[in-house]
Here is the input.
Amino acid sequence: MGAFLLRRIAVMLATALCLTFVVFVLTNLQPNLEKVARTQGNARMTDAEVASWLDARGYDRNVFVKYGEWLGVVPGYVARDGDGVQGRCFGQAAEVPSGASRFCGVLQGSWGYSTVFREDVSTIVATRLGLTGKLMAWTLALMVPSALVLGVLAGMREGSRTDRALSSVSILSTATPEYVSGVILITVFASSAAGLGWFKGTAASAMEDATFWNFFLPVLTIALYGMGYIARMTRASMAEVMTSQYIRTARLKGVRFRDVVLRHALRNALIAPFTVIMLQFPWLLNGVVIVETLFNYKGFGWTLVQAAGNNDIELLLAVSVVSVVVVLATQLVSDIGYVWLNPRISVT
Here is the structure.
């Protein structure tokens, strides 16, 4: 197991470097940099003034060098102009500060400065990630147990009325996008004019003080979409396990049906759904963009939209790094859990 973990971590690091480099190159394409210069500088800049602005701030250099600076393995740039000295690690100054660090990248904990929110990127990411983490936690608490119960009940007796009814509910849930179910839930339960008007609070207020009335609708919107997929996978796995020879042997020996399901079938049936559940974490982290925008909940997905829409390079890179790390970490946990649940798999 130790060698397996070391190999997987090595692959994760290599994958993270490749993915972040691709994102870095895409965000540092010349048309995008020119847009940054005209947005932060002057919209009426000439091409020569744009080139001078980019050169003074270290943008107009080799992409590999800039990526190394951003990582923190290459010393940050220092450029002199008529106003003094401009450096990655200390900003604008008359002279290079005596105690200024030469390396100031992600590895040193320096994520840059957001040009849109006018705040350190690390502070923004930590705050927004915490808000989305709260949304994810409550969504998983509602989605996973409900989906597993639906899937197990449907798969216990394949082809029965219960199976057909629960499978229809699961298919309908998965086939309905979040922006459709969210609008329906808002219209029916939150609108006083057209609906019941039960949920008076807004998700924006849930960022400070989450209650059932201002937080349940966005949680339910996300849970409904993911619940159907997990339930379908659980149902298929459960139905397959229930036709196994050892299950038939247990039934013939007179073991109660409830004990057959709980003691013999359930653990093997949860192997495939476990992988699917772990894959929900990356989806929840970045897939809540629509829901957070719809309910005006300013979490991680909402921040991703703001960073991309306003060309905030440093913030967009930080969001990408967090997304990559979450995806790779959940895949590692999924592999470990799969090995633990399935003793037939040997890791050498």
